[in-house]
Amino acid sequence: MHDGVPIGEAARASGVKVPTIRYYEQVGLLPEPPRTEGNRRLYGGRHLRRLAFIRHARELGFEVEAIRTLLDLQDNPGQSCSPADSIARLRLKDVEERIARLTALKAELQRMIDGCSHGTVADCRVIEVLADHGACASPTHR
Amino acid sequence: MHDGVPIGEAARASGVKVPTIRYYEQVGLLPEPPRTEGNRRLYGGRHLRRLAFIRHARELGFEVEAIRTLLDLQDNPGQSCSPADSIARLRLKDVEERIARLTALKAELQRMIDGCSHGTVADCRVIEVLADHGACASPTHR
DNA sequence: GCTACATCCTCTAGCGACTAGAGGAGCAAG
DNA sequence: CTTGCTCCTCTAGTCGCTAGAGGATGTAGC
Fold first, then answer.
1. Domains held by chain A: number
2. In this predicted structure, what is the pLDDT of residue A142?
3. CA(B63)–C1'(C15) in Å?
4. CATH number, domain at A11?
5. What is the pLDDT at residue B1?
6. Interatomic CA distance for residues A115 and B32, integer angstroms
7. Which helix (H) or strand (E) is B2 found in, with range?
8. Most A CBs within 10 Å: which of B80, B89, B124, B142, as the mutation test of the A interface?
9. Are residues B63 and B111 in the same domain?
């Protein structure tokens, strides 16, 4: 029965950097852990699990505000999960939109690069396309 | 022969917001235009073309620093275009990586959402997957 | 006990690319 | 001459951290 691990070990265990952990505490995602006599944070299993949750959610691109809501839901498991569901759906929609935009960008960049004759800037396709949107395939990127 | 348009019209013409145009001037992407007696900026064709260039480059996701280089190149058209080429290639690589990551995320989010039984949080798949990375298909997202 | 060194603490400031807002001046139309 | 729009400068805020200063605490070896 020990009373917890220091922040450095929590960082190693979770893959979240030490200052980031303190930042999560500061913005209220992670509750303040107990401290040692010497004022050092001691993280127990509950904190470590919450930290893992946060990290995973951040990896999936959820914003801090969304994670706050998701954590609230996790704390009250009797509620309907539809808020969680809709947060995830919104996130999915966002990801899909990004993919679509980036795919269009990719095509445009590829066209730019493929058309480059490796001469001087004067007849560089990259510069030309940037200067003249009309020379661009997709008028609606971004 | 007129001497230029005010910033609001430049904004409408370019699709760049007024404060953003001023910001570009501040960080040195857009040269300071002449002013009227009443101290208002007046943009001529040269400025508007440069603004369009910047906008298009930003839409393609180039960073301000990269755009600075690209504009320098455009100003000296006798040089080799290989710096422009390599900036564009780096950008393409970045876009490709993002697409790959987002595609993995999309799959994970989809799985989450599809598994959601729309009951309570207690057995919500969304919350569960976030809490337990082991339940996640791709351990290497992001 | 003493020294070295790692780890921890708080606090402030910086990143990129804007965006928002305060507080005021200029200008065109009625 | 007033209304209402556009414009000006300036500062501060956004997001999610990250870096660094300056100091306290903890641990291992001698």
1. 1
2. 47
3. 13
4. 1.10.1660.10
5. 53
6. 33
7. none
8. B124
9. no
